[in-house]
Amino acid sequence: MIVDIHTHAFAREHFTDKFLADAQRARADVVKLLFTFEEYIEAMRPVDKAVVFGMKARRTGLYVPNEFIADWVGRAPQKLIGFMSLDPTEEDFMDDFERSYHDLRLRGVKLGPIYAGFDPTDRRLDALYQRCVKFNLPILFHTGTSFVQFGPLAVTRPYLWDEVALRFPDLKIIMAHLAHPWEGECIAVIRKHPNVYADLSALYYRPWQFYNTMVLCQEYGVMHKLLFGSDFPFTTPQSSVEGIRALNRLVEGTNLPRLREDVVEDIIHRDSLALLYA
Ligand SMILES: [Zn+2]
User: What does the pLDDT look like over 114-142, one tens digit per residue?
Assistant: First the structure.
C-alpha cells in the first residue's frame, strides 16, 4: 500500500501570470506545471491512493475552485481522496467549507498561509478547526518557504503550529514539506503532538538537505510521524520513492550515519489514511 498524501490538480485559468513566473523558482530545473487528467493518473500508477487538492490564495494568484477538485476525484473515485482548499482571508470561507464538505463531499482541507497571507493561529480560523475536529477532517498545511514573492515568511514558520495543536490537540494536522528549510523546528512540533504529522513531499531533489533532515528525524525518533507524498506536478511518486531510497548512497564509503532501510520502507508504505481518519 502506497498513499501519496500530497498531489495538486489545477488548470491554466486558475493561475495568474505572476504566479506562473514565480513558480519557475520552485526547482533549479524547469517544472511542467500544466497537465491533463490522463497524465495525472499515469503519474499516480505506482500509488494505491492519492490525496488531491487545489489551492485558494488570492494574494499570490492561485485560485482553484473546489468544484474542479470534486470533478477530478469523480473521474477516479476509488483511487482519489479530495481535499477542499480555502482562503481564510475571504469573508465567506466557512460557507465554502460547509458547501465543500456537505455538497462536494471533500474529505480534508488544504491551507496555504504563506500563499494566502494569513496566520494559522488567527482566531478567525477557530471555527474551521472546530468543524474539522467534529467531522474528523485532516488539514494539510503548506509549511515552510515558497517561491512566491509576496508570500510572507512570518506566517509559515513551523513553531506557529505548536500553538494550533496546543489549542486543538485532537485536530489532525499535516505539515507539508517538513516546513523546509526549518525542518528542525518542524520536528520539534511533530514530536510532541500525537496528531501532528509531516509529509516528505518535494524534498528529495535537494538531496543533501533531505539526507540531513532524515537523519535528524531518525535521531529524534519521529520517523513514524512522516507521511509519503510527492507534491505532483513538482515531482512524481516514482521519482520521490527513488529519491528517498537513494539517500544512503550519498554517504557510501563514509562514516556518516545511514538511514535504516526498513524504516524508510515503512514510510513509503505507510497507510496514512488509516492514521488520519482513525
Ligand atoms: Zn504542494
Answer: 999 999 999 999 999 999 999 999 999 99
